[in-house]
TrEMBL record:
Keywords noted in UniProt: Amino-acid biosynthesis, Aromatic amino acid biosynthesis, Oxidoreductase
GO cellular component: cytosol
Domain Shikimate dehydrogenase substrate binding N-terminal: 12-94
Pfam families associated with the record: Shikimate_dh_N (PF08501)
GO biological process, one term: chorismate biosynthetic process
Full protein name: Shikimate dehydrogenase substrate binding N-terminal domain-containing protein
Pathway recorded for this protein: Metabolic intermediate biosynthesis; chorismate biosynthesis; chorismate from D-erythrose 4-phosphate and phosphoenolpyruvate: step 4/7
Gene Ontology molecular function terms on file: NADP binding; shikimate 3-dehydrogenase (NADP+) activity
Length: 263
């Protein structure tokens, strides 16, 4: 692939951005198939996120955005159209141009989580799921698991109001779902997801007590780097099936490419 004036540009938006793998993953995929597209890491100042997103709608050769922490909820507000799960999540991690200067958004973090679980034959329908972290990734995961048929869902966050707001949106979108905010019931959850940033740094506290894990439970780590977090080690040591962030990324890769019309 040779970058030229016809190259489709996709930005990977985040702050920080150094830990993100997607620019290389998607650019390599396009190059291997002769697709004239490039994915570029892009780190605006957090406080300027809204201004940057507004300005990007005026860049006609910008084909789309992959949105990472902390811009996912903000980005949803800049989309003219949203999928049902993105509306329930209140966040997006992918945006594509509608062709009229507006954006269409979807929340695919959770789709990757669902794909990773199904890849290990984990039953989601009828399950009890607990999600730690109710930011963009956690909200997307909760919405996708509800969409996939989870019967009971508990969501928690260091900001309780954020978890409560997510629970309210999920209750409205999925009326049959038993959903509540808080940590109560994590001991009985069969699927536990860490969608908080706790674990990205060696000095971070554990997002959950190791005692909640046992054989027969599944732990999904949404963090990509490090490849193995302390929480993953604890969950595995207690006999739980552990799915790393790399499997989630692989699960959402195909959906992301399809969203952008690249596959």
């Amino acid at each position: 692939m040779q970058i030229n004036g016809k190259t489709a540009v996709y930005l990977v938006l985040g702050n920080p951005i150094a830990q993100v793998r997607s620019p290389g993953v998607y650019t390599d995929w396009c190059r291997e198939r002769g697709i004239n597209a490039v994915f570029v890491p892009f780190q605006p100042a957090v406080e300027a996120g809204g201004e940057v997103l507004k300005a990007l709608s005026h860049v006609p050769n910008l084909a789309g955005l992959i949105v990472t922490i902390p811009f996912k909820p903000l980005a949803a507000g800049h989309c003219r159209t949203l999928t049902q799960r993105a509306r329930a999540a209140g966040a997006v991690n992918v945006m594509r141009a509608n062709g009229d200067g507006t954006w269409h958004g979807d929340a695919l973090d959770g789709v990757g989580c669902v794909a990773a679980l199904r890849g290990h034959d984990v039953a989601i329908r009828g399950s009890h799921v607990h999600v730690t972290g109710s930011g963009g990734a956690g909200a997307s995961v909760a919405a996708a698991l509800a969409e996939a048929g989870a019967a009971r869902l508990s969501v928690e966050d260091l900001v309780p109001e954020r978890a409560a707001a997510l629970a309210g949106r999920l209750r409205q979108t999925f009326p049959g779902l038993d959903v509540h905010a808080g940590r109560d019931g994590v001991e009985t959850a069969s699927i536990i997801v860490n969608a908080s940033p706790s674990g990205m740094q060696a000095t971070d506290p554990l997002p959950l007590a190791p005692e909640v894990f046992a054989p027969g439970k599944v732990f999904v780590e949404m963090i990509m780097q490090p490849a193995c977090t302390p929480m993953m080690e604890h969950a595995g040591a207690r006999g739980s099936l552990v799915l790393p962030g790399a499997e989630v990324l692989e699960g959402q890769k195909h959906e992301t490419l399809r969203f952008f019309g690249l596959s």
